[in-house]
Amino acid sequence: MAVCIAVIAKENYPLYIRSTPSENELKFHYMVHTSLDVVDEKISAMGKALVDQRELYLGLLYPTEDYKVYGYVTNSKVKFVMVVDSSNTALRDNEIRSMFRKLHNSYTDVMCNPFYNPGDRIQSRAFDNMVTSMMIQVC
Amino acid sequence: MCRAAEAQHSSPMEASAGGGCGAGPPLLLSDGEQQCYSELFARCAGTVSGGPGSGPPEAARVAPGTTTTAAAGPVADLFRASQLPSETLHQITELCGAKRAGYFGPTQFYVALKLIAAAQSGLPVRTESIKCELPLPRFVMSKSDGERRIGNPAELLGTKVQIPYLTTEKNSFKRMDDEDKQQETQSPTMSPLASPPSSPPHYQRVSLSHGYSKLRSSTEQMHPAPYEARQPLGQSEGPSSGGPGSKPLRRQASLIRSFSVERELQDNSSNYLDEPWRITEEQREYYVNQFRSLQPDPSSFISGSVAKNFFTKSKLSIPELSYIWELSDADCDGALTLPEFCAAFHLIVARKNGYPLPEGLPPTLQPEYLQAAFPKPKWECALFDSYSESMSANQQPRDLNRMEKTSVKDMADFPAPTQDVTGDDKQALKSTGNEALSKDVSEDPVKLCSFPSDLPLFCYRSYSSTSIEEAMKRGEDPPTPPPRPQKTHSRAASLDLNKVFQPSVPAVNSGLLPPPPALPPRPYPSQSEPVSEGDLHPQLNRAPSQAAESSPAKKDAPHAQPPSKPIRRKFRPENQSTENQEPSTGGTASAATVKPHPTVHKQSSKQKKAIQTAIRKNKEANAVLARLNSELQQQLKEVHQERIALENQLEQLRPVTVL
Q1: What is the DSSP secondary-structure string of A28-64?
Q2: Shortest Cα distance from B326 to chain A (angstroms)?
Q3: pLDDT (tens digit, 9 = 90+) per residue, B248-296?
Q4: Closest by Cβ to B325, choosing from A108, A113, A123
Q5: pTM listed for this prediction
Q6: Closest CA of chain B from A63, distance in Å
Q7: Which of A111, A113, A120, A132 to mutate to test the interface with B (most CBs of B within 10 A)?
Q8: Is B323 in contact with A124 (Cβ distance < 8 A)?
Q9: Cβ-defined contact of A115 to B305 (cutoff 8 Å)
Q10: pLDDT in tens, B628-646
């Protein structure tokens, strides 16, 4: 379903970014990068007092003519960004949410691994497989 | 009804399945199908009184009996041989009505077979799907149907002939093992729904029967999933060599179990296909020992950081270790239980021995499997001599370690968290444990990676002596005696330090110590003395303290302290001379005061004296340093004040310059 999935660390550098190889990957990288601004905007808009109540799922960040970009932030300010093809019959919000939830769970599993240093690139095969499954579903 | 139909075994019939199956549709069976099904049914019904688990492993019972029901056991086996996932098989049994009827009559059986064929062809398990023309169901290692497409009557006959050769096939099983193993290691965990790769006909023909037969003959139950690899996809099987005929026999010969899927999954222990991933008994014991070295309680967890440090010693690369962790930590909680730990350890061992890491956790390494297979770690294992020896050797340092840990905790100032791997003491402790264990590694029949002990034992030594001194200085309650240090103790090789010091610690407390450092506040005598006394002060104080501690008459101390320097100086040589005599008596005196340690005075007084001199020296040094510290602090204060003054001046001058 997703065309590109990225995990961005708190300091706004990518921990993991993967896109379907069909297209120019650089374009997706750029889109993810620009979406970070939107994410920050949304986070700050919620206000500091609401940090606990802030919902993790940010929703549609911004649409382009070809793609839609969705965002999700964890409580530790790790961001998940997902780029979805617009031509794909409109994925329902719930589906996107569930995909993010799966991402979050896999990310937590990666963190649980003591050999993973937070801040490293994510190289876990289990995480890769999960992301692949999410991306392949389109086909 | 269906009963009537049963009478017509070999004749083509149209099983009015509706009768027996209730809602089942009429079955239209082709000739080939008829024959196959009746054969199968005959085979299944061959065993008398086919109750679950009642069939002992008997040979030749092929004769199609006149029983009208197929035994649940062989039927179950046959179904499993079809290599369909268990849910599908469940569905099939339900659909064909056997569950409702409670038995496998011919109608039910035939419907079931047809459904199996349908499922194997990829059709959903529905009653409608059996209405169409279907290929025969395929059964691995089952009889004639086994690998055949549309019926091949010739083969049917051929297979029957194979039965007598059954027993000889046992020998070929071992041959097959390797093939199986290879096959399996390449695809160790296959989900039942994964499309099996089509194996070459040769392999399929040869190994299918043998492998399966061998497995069948084992006492453990078969798991169909691993054999999907061999399931041919549209392969024409020609004369399946010898296998098919033997299979029904085997089937009946094997232990008959009821058709329960759950048990199937649980009894998934016959995995000699996963040889590299199987944990042998000895390996298991070794892993358990290692687990205990990290975490004494075998039923609790090893935390992630502890495990990480431990596994890092294996010198595998971090990404590999990370991957192994991912595989073995099944519940992804960042901690390893005993089975998870064993799995991780085994993977590391395998990796070190050159096996590539699997894609998924092999079934033999699953935590449930490990827990079931080895319910209790046998701590007192006497299975292998090497282990029993090593264990006794291990226990000593381990006991010491534990005692050390408890004693360490008692010393308040000593930051010795048991989990502090980086700490000197911990590493020393661990190294003693690991050293003993790592010796086993080299002897271990399983060539394991050696986890070298990083720190030599002398760390242990220095730690214990320092701790005691600190404790004395702190003037706390006498710490619980640390265990006898290793023989390599520098200060007092065979002396149990604490036994010596226990009497002396309280004496020291009441005796004299220079006030500035963290020393116990002395009573009257020391407090009257000024700090600047300097070196002599501690020495002199110590001298009388020695006298005080050694002699029960502690009044000497007060008398000794208040005199001024010169007097003290004089007193000092006196004391020193008396001191020389005292140690000899000191031993006895301290022994008198320390009743629970009668052995103390047996220790040579020389050692005691040596310790006391050492203590004295350390106290002196300490006092010197403390003085130095106070002096430097004074200087620091002065410098601060100067700086403040200068800054003030600067502030005053600044407005002038800015303008």
Answers
A1: HHHHHHHHHHHHHHHHHHH-GGGTTT--SEEEEEEE-
A2: 7
A3: 444 444 444 444 444 444 444 444 445 667 778 888 888 888 888 887 7
A4: A113
A5: 0.37
A6: 36
A7: A113
A8: yes
A9: no
A10: 999 999 999 999 999 999 9
